[in-house]
Design a protein that fits this description.
Blueprint lengths: L4 H14 L8 E5 L5 H14 L3 E5 L25 H8 L3 E4 L7 H8 L3 E4 L4 H6 L4 H16 L2 E6 L4 E5 L5 E4 L9 E3 L4 E4 L7 E6 L4 E2 L4 E2 L5 E6 L2 E6 L2 H11 L9 E7 L20 H5 L4 E5 L15 E5 L2 E5 L2 E5 L2 E2 L11
Parallel strand pairs: 1-2, 1-3, 3-4, 4-8
Antiparallel strand pairs: 5-6, 5-18, 6-10, 7-9, 9-15, 10-13, 11-12, 13-14, 15-16, 16-17, 18-19, 19-20
Helix pairs in contact: 1-2, 3-4
Length: 352
């Protein structure tokens, strides 16, 4: 599906309105050679229509660290690493349009701490058009955020055999609703989920990644047999199953980092426009896979770093595993039952 030039510009103007961009605000459009050229063009033109205080900074990409890797395959090092000049300029802006994908970097945390808000956009225009954010997306995500902030435990089960206990409360939450409208807020267009990080070294139980669940950044559905992860004291201690289990085991081993096996962020999807089937319809290199990470009612389990939340794990290896059909309990109260969001405040308002 192609998106016309006029449509791309209109989309960006709508998202900038959601970001509450004002004419007096200073904006940086951050790009690199890896940025989608249509996004660079449309973002720059749209921002210039709203604010005359706009600059575009293009930074050189970093060399690839992994075979066929995308932005989520090797974390911590970004094109901003060591570039103090660029970081200082970014800190002085009000809004950053990140077309590079900084993700899990100290530089990103430093910029956000200055009060700058940041919107990451790396998906191609046709994905952006299909997953346009709305104020109702924020309503649902922030309702979930309010529940998650006060919870002290998450309990996840599934008919496939998942039985996972996640003590909470050490770290904050990460609401993603698709636009950056508050000082110091980072977000990602497209998105739509809520997550947090469990207490370090506290997660216990079993995760069964069933046939049809997905592995990122490997970008594949599990197809041959379920993958069974044993979790003890916050770490994956055993990986059993067929081919995909073997692949996952070797992928983790390739980082030569015991911290890669830690349980990282956990949460659930709230984007009703996202599609479970999308991964099978696109070239793997053309999309980051936000449909899978955000689809309504998923359980998003991940491994690796928690440093962006203030934790001690700085692993470069990060795996996201969107799972369908799970039940999620917060302090013994369900928010998702077998993949269906049941909290009325988190349901889609189809009247708008």
């Amino acid at each position: 599906m192609s998106v016309s030039d006029d449509h791309r510009l209109a989309m960006w103007l709508q998202v900038l309105k959601l970001c509450r961009l004002q004419p007096e605000e200073k904006v940086v459009v951050l790009s690199s050679e890896s940025s989608h050229p249509f996004n660079v063009d449309a973002a720059t033109r749209a921002v210039n229509r709203v604010s005359p205080h706009t600059v575009r900074i293009e930074i050189p990409p970093i060399p690839p660290h992994r075979p066929g890797s995308d932005r989520t395959a090797f974390l911590g090092t970004t094109p901003l690493s060591g570039n103090t000049l660029a970081v200082e300029i970014l800190k002085r802006s009000d809004l950053i349009i990140d077309l590079v994908g900084l993700l899990h970097s100290q530089e990103q945390l430093d910029v956000l701490a200055s009060g700058t808000r940041m919107l990451m956009v790396v998906e191609p225009p046709e994905v952006l058009a299909r997953l346009m954010p709305s104020e109702d997306d924020k309503r649902r995500v922030m309702a979930a955020d309010a529940r998650l902030r006060v919870a002290r435990s998450m309990y996840v089960t599934s008919k496939a055999g998942t039985d996972l206990i996640l003590p909470l409360g050490q770290f904050g939450t990460l609401p993603e609703y698709g636009y950056a409208d508050e000082p110091g807020h980072w977000d990602h267009w497209p998105s739509g989920f809520i997550s947090t990080w469990p207490v370090e070294r506290a997660a216990q139980g079993k995760v069964v990644i069933d046939i049809g669940d997905m592995l990122f950044p490997i970008k594949r559905y599990v197809e041959t047999s379920p993958i069974i992860l044993e979790v003890q004291d916050g770490y994956i201690t055993q990986i059993d199953g067929g081919f995909e289990a073997k692949y996952l085991r070797r992928y983790l081993e390739s980082y030569n980092d015991p911290e890669a096996y830690a349980v990282a962020h956990v949460g659930w999807g709230l984007q009703a426009q996202a599609s479970w089937t999308a991964l099978g319809t696109r070239d793997k290199q053309q999309s980051l896979g936000m449909d899978a990470r955000s689809f309504y009612g998923n359980f998003l389990f991940s491994t690796g770093p928690n440093a962006e939340a203030g934790g001690r794990n700085h692993s470069a290896c990060h795996i996201d595993i969107p799972m369908a059909g799970c039940t999620i309990m917060l302090d013994d109260e369900p928010v998702v039952i077998e993949g269906v969001v049941i909290d009325p405040e988190q349901r889609v308002d189809y009247t708008k």
